[in-house]
Every structure is written in structure tokens, then in C-alpha cells.
Amino acid sequence: MQASLRLLKKRRFLPLFVTQLLGAFNDNLFKNAMVLFVVYSVYNDERSETWFSALATGIFILPFFVLSALSGQLADQRDKAKIIRYVKAAEIAIMLVGAAGLAMIWSGIAVHIVAIPLLLVALFAMGVHSTFFGPIKYAILPQHLHDDEVLGGTGLVEAGTYIAILAGTILAGIIPVEVAAIAIVITAVVGYVAGREVPPAPSLLEEQPIDFHVIRSAVTLVRATMHIPRLFLAIMAISFFWAVGSVLFIHFPPLVKNVLFADKPVASLFLAIFSIGIAIGSIAINRLLKGHVSARYAPASVIGMGLCIVAFHIVCAMWVPGSDGKMLSLGGFLAHPLAIALSACLLGVATFGGMFVVPLYAFLTTTVEKCEAARTVAANNIVNSGAMVTGSLIAIGLSIAGISVVNQLLLVALLCLPCAWLAWRLHKACD
């Protein structure tokens, strides 16, 4: 571990690490600050709030679905350090637009006509930003690090990303929206400065023509990957998982506000608990499997996830808000008799989810040759993002149909069944 931490003193690693950390932090701070403020301060009915949360999630994920194949080609064919500089410069402009939208919505200026559309445009642009930066953070490490440093460097990037996501998520529920507007711009500027320090990373391949037809290139990439049975099963199981995850994330803010009658920090706490649970599940399954790539525990894990969602639904249905009509603060929520049970159910959902999905991701890079691993991950990202967009549309449709957020949880739990079936088939295929 200490050998890995020494990389933080190296120019060939530290600037990339800081750039990635700040990008993940900014994504989550902006998105969650926007969604929480709109849900709590603009809309006053559960249907509109769920619709907006679903729309925001879908808009952010859509670029991954459309542009992952193109971003992968560029990362392979061009100097990665140059792409980082362009992408991080674009982030400053995007965050200026996002900050303007937050300032307008806070001031009550043209909220529905200009401010909210402006925020959604900035969110879509951040999705594009993340789509093009994503492949680089993995592809650049083998160029800048020695062979015996790559694993440690990758681990540090993953740990930093997790901490940044958690920090951005929690901070979004605590700080005022006007402070968030300033913070996202400052973070983007610092990220650009860090990105400029990343050493050159020219392409290692012979230059080939890039297919800028985003639909054709995406279809070609997915077809070239999904014909392998084990990859098909793993990618489809992961995609169902992220469809479930996206619907849960969509429902957290309106559920906390309208069912639990709690304020923004509680919604932020829910997102933080979910992130922590995924991390716990990741560690637990690695201990159980002892480094062996296997889907042995995946079917049971996703069934456990579904049962925890059902338990979460039951506790939400039993929840009785305070008699004074005021929203619960974070302290008031934690003092509620059912708070521990609710938090435990949510932690169980995320922990079983981490245990389910981590081994399946390992299949993506161990089933194919190393030279094909990046394309496999890109194909998986395309299918996953399509599933998450579909999950967002399902949430919107169910809300329009008048199904309450609490009852939608039961439908989400049912999605765990096809996940379990796919994971069982994958386990059998690999025996």
C-alpha cells in the first residue's frame, strides 16, 4: 500500500489522480445540488419531482450510450493528455452555464422557462465530458506507470473516485445552492490546471480512421462483443443491475421528501449510504471469492438485494412523520424509531448489489485478451447506459400512471429476478 501511495509524489501519476478526483466530485456536486434544490424548492408534488429526478438521470447517462464508442476510439488513436486538456477546458465553460442556472433558480428568475432548461443542458454537457474522459483514466495508466505500478495506481484512482463521489454527494445536501454554484466553477478551474500537468501520452497504435458515425460505431462495437456467450450474460446482468440502481437513485429525493417528510441532508445521507454499501459489498465478495473470478454468489446476492428492497418498501409504508407538520432534520430523522431499520435495509440493498456486480465486472476483462479489454468495457458502458436510460423512462412512465414512489419499489424488486436468472446461467456456463 505504501508503495502505491508513493505514486502520489510522481508527476506521471498525481496530476491525473487529482484531475479524475475533481471531475468525479464536480459531477456529483452539481447533479445532486441541482436535483435536491429543484425537488425541495421548486416542485410541490411527488409526480413532478420523480419526473424531474428521472429526467436528470437520463440526460446525464444518455451521452454514455451515444458517444462511448467514439470516445474509446479517440482515446486509442490520439494523445490522451491533449484530450484531457480539451475536456477539462470544456468543463469550465459547462460549469459556468450550470452556475448561471443555479443562480437563476435560487434568485427565482425565469425558473421554469430558462433556469431549469439551462441546468439540464449543463448536465447533458457534463455527461458528454465524463464520456470522453472516462476511457482515458484507465488507458493512460499503463503508459505512465511501470508494470508493477499499474495495479496500485488503478486502485488509488478507484479509491479517489469513490471518496470524491461520496464527498460531492454529501456536500450537495449540506451547502446552500448559491455556494454550490461558486464551488463547481472553482473546482472546474482547479481541475483544468491539474489536467495541464498530465505528461504526454501519445497513441501506441498505428493511426486508423475514426468512425464518427456514433450509431454505427456503437452497434459495431456491441456486436463484436456480445456474441461471446459469457460476455453477453455478464453484460446483460450488469445492465439489469444498473437499471435497478438508476430507478432507486431517481426515487431517493422524492421519497425522502414526500414519504419520510425529511429535508435535503437526509436525501444526501441516503445516497451516501448507498455508495458505502456498494464499497462494503465489493470488499466482502473479494474476501469470499479469495481473488477467484466467479459468479458463484451472484444469484444469491441479487436475490438478497431484492429482499432488502421489499423490506425497505415495508418500512417506508410503516413510516409515520412527525405530528408538527415540519420536515425532519438529519438529527430528527436519526431519532425516528424506524430510522435504523430503514438505513439498514438501504445498506443491505447496496451491499448485496456490490457483491453481485463486482465479480461480473471482472468477467469483462478476464474473458477476453488484454488488447480487447478496453473495447469490452466500452461495449458494456453502452449497454449499461442504455439500461439506465430505460430505467429512467420506466420511472417517468410509472409516475405518469399514478403509481406512488413507495409502490414502485416493489416493481424494482421484481427486476432482481431476471438479474438472478442471468447470473445463474453465467455461473453454470463458467463451471
In words, what does this structure look like?
The protein has 431 residues and is mainly α. The chain has 17 helices and no strands. It has helices at 2-5, 14-41, 46-77, 80-107, 111-139, 141-144, 150-172, 177-195, 214-226, 229-258, 264-289, 298-318, 330-335, 339-366, 373-400, 405-414, 416-430. It is globular. The mean pLDDT is 85.
Characteristics of this structure?
17 helices; mainly alpha; single chain; 431 residues; globular
Question: Outline of this structure?
Answer:
By secondary structure, the protein is mainly alpha-helical. It has helices at 2-5, 14-41, 46-77, 80-107, 111-139, 141-144, 150-172, 177-195, 214-226, 229-258, 264-289, 298-318, 330-335, 339-366, 373-400, 405-414, 416-430.
Query: Averaging pLDDT over every residue, what do you get?
Result: 85
Derived from helix and strand composition plus strand pairing, the structural class reads mainly alpha
Alpha carbon gyration radius: 21 Å
Low-confidence stretches: none
With helices defined by DSSP (H or I, 4 residues minimum), what is the helix count? 17
Order of helices and strands: HHHHHHHHHHHHHHHHH
Strand content: under 5%
Distance between the termini: 34 Å
Break the fold down into its secondary structure elements and pairings.
Blueprint (H helix, E strand, L loop, with lengths): L1 H4 L8 H28 L4 H32 L2 H28 L3 H29 L1 H4 L5 H23 L4 H19 L18 H13 L2 H30 L5 H26 L8 H21 L11 H6 L3 H28 L6 H28 L4 H10 L1 H15 L1
Helix pairs in contact: 2-3, 2-4, 2-5, 2-7, 2-8, 3-5, 3-9, 3-10, 3-15, 4-5, 4-8, 7-11, 9-15, 10-11, 10-14, 10-15, 10-16, 10-17, 11-14, 12-14, 12-16, 12-17
